[in-house]
Amino acid sequence: AGPGRAMRAAGAARGAALAAAAVTAVALAVAAWRRARPVREVLFFPSQPCCIEALLAEAAEPGEPARPCPCPLPSGDTALSRLVRRLLSARRSLDLCLFSFSCPQLARAVQLLHRRGVRVRLVTDAQYMGLHGSQIGRLRRAGIQVRHDQHSGYMHHKFAIVDRRMLITGSLNWTTQAIQSNRENVLVVEDAEYVKAFQDEFERIWEEYNPASYIFFP
Amino acid sequence: AGPGRAMRAAGAARGAALAAAAVTAVALAVAAWRRARPVREVLFFPSQPCCIEALLAEAAEPGEPARPCPCPLPSGDTALSRLVRRLLSARRSLDLCLFSFSCPQLARAVQLLHRRGVRVRLVTDAQYMGLHGSQIGRLRRAGIQVRHDQHSGYMHHKFAIVDRRMLITGSLNWTTQAIQSNRENVLVVEDAEYVKAFQDEFERIWEEYNPASYIFFP
């Protein structure tokens, strides 16, 4: 019975190892499929007000246990938290083309990416960047490059491109009023054709709004 | 030679018939492929001002020779003419969800569709529908159903759905200022998943803004 028991034990161990290998293979395949599947998401606003401290903390120090936030807001799954998650997924670059940017929560997310070494570029509208509550000054002071128009027409786009790969675009200006009170939409599209069209538009505007080309009237 | 000539003539006739059949088959295949290929288009504004009389005339009386328009504007291929073409492709329904609608050219296109029997529904923002230049009154007088919010927040969407099949959405308000002077984007997407998300949002808003549910304060 001795050798038989040893053989059974060896067989059981081999079976367990095989099962573990199979589970790992399936997990890897699922992860690869998730990575490969392009993001396609539609967000509608108004969004419930929510706390994004846990998201920001996780992005700032990945893997660290999150300290509980004392604020009374829920930290659930909302249109705002989804938008923040998409932005915080940036690893290399974030190109922002925003008519109006006065939401402090989104400004903190952008500042965090900048600190983490993501190359942030921001194009905005000259008339709106100086309004009360605008986050443009804060972002510039943090060292983020900002360019704006010199025209009478508005720079009315509201889009972001994450890592030249993911387009985030819609009707939503990045203001707390729009996020919490308006009917708005945001499309999240990981599609090379659409991303290229918007990336080209961004580069055109970025060059056109180069301060070296400003025209000054006497 | 008599029977030979007749046989040659019959052969030539058969050849011509075969060639004609082949040309027809290729044309049908190309048409089917065009129909099957979903529309994917990005329009950037500002658009050159352009004359859309020929487009409207062709939509009003298909096949009729277009009368030349006396206006000095070019009738070339612009972002505005492309947008108008997409709208005029509607055969059954046009659902509009527009923060601001003051462009007379787009209002004429919508009115034409209504006259042609397309079911037009329009949702708009209460604060903006009464502004100078708004086309909402004109469209209502023409018999088009319009609903609006009763909120302090804005109904800030800017999208259209053609035949429950094609989504037209972006940053562009339907104003002449936006079309001719602003930096704007419009996505045209024939994609069942995105269309369904926006169609559902439209139906939610349409029901929520039903005048039967208005709340009146004393």
UniProtKB/TrEMBL annotation, chains A, B:
Arranged from A to Z, the UniProt key words for this protein are: Differentiation, Endonuclease, Hydrolase, Lipid degradation, Lipid metabolism, Meiosis, Membrane, Metal-binding, Mitochondrion, Mitochondrion outer membrane, Nuclease, Spermatogenesis, Transmembrane, Transmembrane helix
Xref: Gene3D superfamilies: Endonuclease Chain A
Reply yes or no: does the keyword Nuclease apply.
yes
Concerning InterPro entries, the annotation shows:
PLD-like_dom, PLD_domain, PLipase_D/transphosphatidylase
Q: How does it sit in the membrane?
A: Single-pass membrane protein
Any one of the GO BP annotations: piRNA processing
To which protein family does this belong?
Belongs to the phospholipase D family. MitoPLD/Zucchini subfamily.
- Write down what this protein is called: Mitochondrial cardiolipin hydrolase
> What is the organism of origin for this protein?
Vidua chalybeata (Village indigobird)
